[in-house]
Amino acid sequence: MKRILIVGAGGQIGSELTTYLRKIYGNDNVVATDVRECKQLAESGPFEVMNALDANAMAEMVSRQKIDSIFNLVALLSAVGEAKPQTAWQVNIGALMNSLEVARQYNCALFTPSSIGAFGPSSPKDKTPQDTVMRPTTMYGVCKVTGEMLGDYYHSRFGVDTRSVRFPGLISNVTLPGGGGTTDYAVDIYYSAVKGEKFICPIPEGTLMDMMYMPDALNAAISLMEADPTKLVHRNSFNIASMSFTPEIIYAEIKKRLPDFTMDYDVDPVKKAIAESWPNSLDDTCAREEWGWKPEWDLSSMTDDMLEVIRKKNLK
Ligand code: SER
């Protein structure tokens, strides 16, 4: 990777991935784009407003900027996807198809995240294998499985270097996930704790979901894109995992450090149904064997870091 295009750079993953990639490959070699202006990203390197659904605009950008690798991060998340399924399909698949086509025409490598949401209620719940029944019951998941298959198709049919991971719920402290995801509660809970507010949890007690701290997620994306292609048996997409917890487990972890912190439940029925259709934990053996995936953060170290960083924001 020498000249990188980030599509959807203003979101939860993109805002941190752009900074991370700029440190590795040089500020000028990472072109960030989003449908909206992003002042902060424009301060550290090239930034352009671009609508990922505009195929001509994307092709023009890739050609003019001499791009060789694309990270397509555009997606409506799971809960918002249930509120607007038609829009979710249009946006998620529209941005992906444009990225695939541009990658094919301009000979670029392409990374697109998949998700734990690609699995469904008939997938094995615990240690969900790499290759198994998918059959998701959300539009978000339908888009993710479609994306995985399109990625493999463009690789086998056209030789496009497509690679992808199935991200768990991502926990970060730079850009909020935006409220549209089922796993967003695991970010929001830290902000409530630091602000000294009671946290109202939308996910029922006892619901296990895979989660990951953003630094591990960024490292996964880049390690996979830099991996030796001859070692890759799979491509779209790899299970990756680092921790799996329920609301009461993350609450207890925070409460160890902030004993006055309290939490109540007000379960969102849409998020409950989505969460219950997803795995409890993924088996990431293939990622470990094929490209050396190894997470560095667990719930305890992540909680220390999240609380420290959010405290420094001096939130009111
Ligand atoms: N974080 C996503 C969501 O909750 C899942 O990948 O929708």
Q: Overview of this structure, please?
A:
The protein is an alpha/beta fold and 316 residues long. It has 12 helices and 14 strands. The chain has helices at 12-25, 39-44, 55-64, 78-83, 85-106, 139-158, 185-195, 214-226, 247-257, 269-277, 285-291, 299-312, and strands at residues 4-7, 30-34, 47-49, 69-72, 109-111, 114-115, 162-163, 165-167, 169-171, 199-201, 209-213, 238-239, 243-245, 263-265. Strand 2, helix 2 and strand 3 form a beta-alpha-beta unit. Helix 7 packs parallel to helix 9 (247-257), helix 7 packs across helix 12 (299-312) and helix 9 crosses helix 12 (299-312). The chain is globular. The termini are far apart. The relative contact order is 0.14. The model has no long low-confidence stretch (mean pLDDT 97). Bound molecules: serine.
Write a compact overview of the structure shown:
The chain has helices spanning 12-25, 39-44, 55-64, 78-83, 85-106, 139-158, 185-195, 214-226, 247-257, 269-277, 285-291, 299-312, and strands spanning 4-7, 30-34, 47-49, 69-72, 109-111, 114-115, 162-163, 165-167, 169-171, 199-201, 209-213, 238-239, 243-245, 263-265. The protein is α/β, with parallel strands linked by helices.
